[in-house]
Every structure is written in C-alpha cells, then in structure tokens.
UniProtKB/TrEMBL annotation:
This is Uncharacterized protein. It comes from the Bacteria. It comes from Octadecabacter ascidiaceicola.
Length: 234
C-alpha cells in the first residue's frame, strides 16, 4: 500500500490535468459530504423508524436502504442554500444506464448518481453502485462481482464512463471485518496499487483503487470505496 496522499495528487497521477483534478476533488468531496449527512440523518431513531414503516419487513433490503438513503440525500440537497456548493448538485437513485437497449424491468440501473454542472456547460456524474454485505462471500460475489464493481469495469455499456466512480457497501453484520477483507481481495480483480487511503479536500479519509478498462475501450478508472454501518440499526 502506498502512503496516504490527497485525492488531487492521486488524480493527477492518473493523468488528469491539475484543473481537472481540482474540479473532480471538489465534486467528490461535496458528494461524500452529502452521502455522510444523508446516512447520519437516516440513522437518527425517528428517521429510521419512519423508514422502517415503509419497508416490507423490519430487516430492510438493499433496494430499500438505497431508496431510504437516496430520499434523505435529495431532501438535504433540496434544503441547501441557493448558490451553495450543495445546491449545484443533482441527486438521483435507481438511475437507468444510458445506451443499454434492455427495457422495462430488465433495464439496468445504478444505485446512485450525483451530478454537477460546471462552467461552460461541462457536466460530470459520480455514479455509485451499492451492495449488501452480510457474509464474507458477499465481498467477492456481490461487491467485487460482475453486478458490483464489474458494472464499471467490464459491463458494456458501463454504468459510467467517467474517470471516477464509486462502490458502496451496506454492512449488516461484522462491520469492522469488511475493510480488511476488501484490502485482501481487491488486488485479485486487477487493482494495480491495491487499496489506497486518500484525503479529500474536506479532510475526510477515503479508500480508492485504480482499474484498467481496456476491455471496454475506456481509460483507467478510479473507484472510491465506502462501507456504511447498519449493524446497529438492523
């Protein structure tokens, strides 16, 4: 594992210009702030109880967690002051994949898309795929599987063609075990530098990995990794 670096340094090392890296750093940092605040809001007792009332059972599924978290992220974004950095974000969940000609219930959908428009009309999307983590097998079969990180690296069309994408785990059991397991398994799927800790402009720490996408004709992708703890809530 390399020493801890800033996200800006990391992205410049991936071939982005300093200007591109600066834009992406701010965007990803703002996105993580929104995710963290949405997660904290969802885990408040009154919010969690309200959320559970809309679930099929008292043990929510991955799609139910996604919609519960997504609703609160959208609420926080909508309540943001005008012209603030959060006001410039657009939040969506269960987002259909552009360019895929499957339709109806077969249409593939990414769990989250946070989009921001920059000056001169440039728009970037930070797309995140989420997977539940209950047993050690879920790390390989779900999180690092074809329907997890593979949606960005091998799928045609991929969930995102942008240079930065995200994976999110919903930890339902043994929360402290998942990051070490991810560190152990990530190189087996082609992460050239393993799992690296970087620092966002906000000061938040984040784990990233880099992956080739030559099989689908795209440049290297940076994948962010975050695992949210729902063990105390379930």
């Amino acid at each position: 594992m390399t020493k801890e670096i800033s996200l800006e340094q990391w992205l410049i090392g991936q071939g982005l210009t300093p200007q591109e890296a600066d834009l992406w750093c701010d965007f990803i940092s703002e996105s993580f702030d929104l995710i963290d605040d949405g997660y904290a809001l969802l885990c408040k007792p009154n919010e969690w109880n309200s959320f559970l009332n809309g679930c099929h059972t008292q043990s929510p599924t991955e799609p139910e967690i996604t919609s519960g978290l997504g609703d609160r992220m959208k609420r926080l974004q909508a309540d943001a002051p005008m012209e603030s950095s959060r006001d410039r974000l657009q939040v969506a969940y269960e987002v259909a994949t552009l360019g895929d000609e499957s339709h109806g219930i077969r249409k593939p959908k990414a769990d989250f898309e946070i989009r921001r428009k920059f000056e001169a009309g440039y728009s970037a999307a930070y797309v995140i795929e989420a997977k539940p983590l209950r047993t050690p097998a879920d790390m390989n079969s779900r999180y690092l599987g074809d329907e997890g990180i593979g949606c960005f690296l091998e799928r045609e069309p991929p969930y995102s063609k942008d240079k930065v994408v995200g994976m999110m785990g919903y930890s339902f059991k043994n929360h402290s075990s998942w990051e070490p397991l991810l560190t152990e398994k990530i190189t087996a799927i082609g992460a050239t530098k393993g799992l690296v800790q970087i620092t966002l402009p906000s000061g938040r720490k984040c784990k990233v990995s880099e992956h080739e996408r030559t099989a689908i004709g795209l440049p290297m992708a940076t994948v962010t990794h975050t695992i949210l703890d729902y063990t105390q809530s379930i």
